[in-house]
Write a structure and sequence with these properties.
alpha/beta; Rossmann fold; 26% strand; ATP-binding; BCAA_Transport_ATP-bd_LivF; AAA+_ATPase; ABC_transporter-like_ATP-bd; Urea ABC transporter ATP-binding subunit UrtE
Length: 230
């Protein structure tokens, strides 16, 4: 479904990702791991189009996306939850979710019922301002907003960062539910937690110094400890 080949991404004259080659197949949960500062979020921004790659290729469903805008990628089925969530704090939960519908091909006028089934806390708080929610609730809102447009590819940048353990467990359960109920949805996530990644992912990539240095279906702690600082 998604394939990046030798992506080189950076900020101005500073190159951060020097070799970003990954593949996400339909229905897969793929986890991109690595220590802080090795280029994981930069690569994901390049995939989403927030940063324009310096060189390399990116294809989605066999179509080159390298020159398309973030908006065009969203309309093609990319859903993106950036690090830090970036919800609209002055808007209500319901208003945040309605904004998420804007990139849906079918242009629905109402929030899908299954969103509230996945995230029942958001139904309880739908009239609360996003800025009034706890960090864990804001993260759930950010994921729900990305899912509201019914994307084919969901990009999650550190969904468990700074989240209390009970909410981490809920996010894990939500991803497991998505795998069961939406088997064609592909997920690429950046994650630091070894245990969380091992529970939910089907395939793993590890990045170090801007390059992919490990890939595989198994995540053996003893072999990769030095790459993850665990």
């Amino acid at each position: 479904m998604l394939k990046s080949t030798n992506l080189e991404v950076g900020y101005g004259d500073s190159v951060v990702v020097r070799e970003g080659s990954i593949e996400v197949k339909e229905g897969q949960v793929v986890c991109l791991m690595g220590r802080n500062g090795v280029g994981k979020s930069t690569l994901m921004k390049g995939i989403m189009g927030v940063l324009k790659p310096i060189q390399g290729e990116l294809s989605y469903k066999g179509e080159s996306m390298i020159d398309s805008s973030p908006t065009a990628r969203a309309y093609r089925g990319f859903g993106y939850v950036p690090q830090g969530r970036e919800i609209f704090g002055t808007l209500t939960v319901q208003e945040n979710l309605l904004i998420g519908l804007e990139t849906s091909e079918s242009k629905p006028q109402t929030i899908p019922k299954w969103i509230y089934e996945y995230f029942p806390v958001l139904l309880e708080m739908k009239n609360r301002k996003g800025g009034e929610l706890s960090g864990g609730q804001q993260q759930q809102l950010a994921i729900a907003r990305a899912l509201a447009a019914n994307p084919n590819l969901l990009l999650l940048d550190e969904p468990t960062e700074g989240i209390q353990p009970n909410i981490v467990a809920e996010i894990q359960a939500i991803i497991e539910t998505i795998k069961q109920k939406q088997p064609k949805l592909s997920i690429l996530l950046i994650e630091q937690s070894f245990d969380f990644a091992r529970r939910i992912a089907d395939y793993y990539y590890i990045m170090d110094n801007g390059k992919i240095v490990y890939k595989g279906k198994e995540l053996k702690e003893g072999e990769i400890r030095h790459l993850l600082s665990i």
